[in-house]
Amino acid sequence: MLEGLRFPLLVAPMAGGPSTPELVAAVVEAGGSGFLAAGYLKAEDLAARIARTRELTAGSFGVNLFVPGSESTVDISGYVSRIVAEGRRYGAEPGEARWDDDEYPAKLDLVVAQRIPLVSFTFGLPSPEDVGRLHEAGSKVVVTVTGPGEAVRAAEVGADALCVQGFEAGAHRGLFADDPSDPAGGPVYGLLAALRLVSSEVDLPLIATGGLVHGADVAAVLVAGAAAAQLGTAFLRADEAGTQPAHRRALAEAGRPTAFTRAFSGRPARGIVNRFLTEHSAHAPAAYPQVHHLTRPVRAAAGKAGDSDGLNLWAGQTYPVASAGPAAEIFARLHGEAVAALKQAQRWLG
Ligand SMILES: Cc1cc2nc3c(=O)[nH]c(=O)nc-3n(C[C@H](O)[C@H](O)[C@H](O)COP(=O)(O)O)c2cc1C
Predict the structure, then answer these.
(1) Ligand 1 atom closest to Cα of 121?
(2) Per-residue pLDDT tens digits for 85-94
(3) CATH number, domain at 175?
(4) Which of the ends of the chain has fewer CB neighbours closer than 10 A, N or C?
(5) Is 316 in the pocket of ligand 1 (CB under 6 A)?
């Protein structure tokens, strides 16, 4: 699938709203590909999105699944009280802090039945049995890794390719396990370092992701050995993205840095620093998805009120450089920049 692309650029899965069939289809039609996000969706809603994307394009696209972890036993009652108080600002009640499996088994059955050509996983490993089922259905399996240790384990279960995520990336780190004693949840590698370390351990095609926002960045990771680049934040302001208005505004203002936080979901994720992140990060337990469900109605109410200080503003480190417009235009600009950057570098290399 990656070989046939005019330009090996994938739009990242972006759960929670930004990923839409229209966005994925626009990038596929422009000559790239990408992933629909299955995270947080019911299996039937994912089926509808797959069908809609197929209506919009005859081209090939993938689906991304969250691998469920085990239920944390940490006491989150103190954090519940904070979110009750947070909810009062917006007249919202917090949600139930429950663990769930994100309907992973049903969604896995669905992608097998639908013979999705590329199925990617984040937050952990699919079982070798599930990798076998996907292979029988003709799918290629991609596992998101944040460093060389996870890469070796992904190769052992039979992954066909790895999505190597640098710490610059927007939203959740794809860590297999979240170490509660570490604010970042585990070791942090910049994207180029991660690509080098991973490629020294495993011999698999690598999809590079994290902080890539200009065509020159895409060229850089291809030169570094990646088979493709996966961009999220670069498409968050695309016309076809489902990014909500308060989030779009914060991205356009480009006034604040980004940081890792567990405050919104209970798992380390990179977002633009705002009041919610500043006030709650130090108190947030490593309890995903309980914290996600707890804060969800409060974040939704903040979004409805147009208050960008009360919701998760996921963004990669380079978000101030991302532009708005039709996805096809963003794609064409990235392609042009990549070609120009490679020519320039070739001149320097002689
Ligand atoms: C709003 C948003 C939502 C995301 N949701 C997902 C997701 O559902 N699954 C996933 O594997 N990665 C997800 N990611 C991470 C991307 O796959 C990718 O690692 C990241 O966007 C790369 O960094 P960049 O945003 O700087 O391009 C998300 C990223 C963003 C910005």
Answers:
(1) 11
(2) 999 999 999 9
(3) 3.20.20.70
(4) C
(5) yes
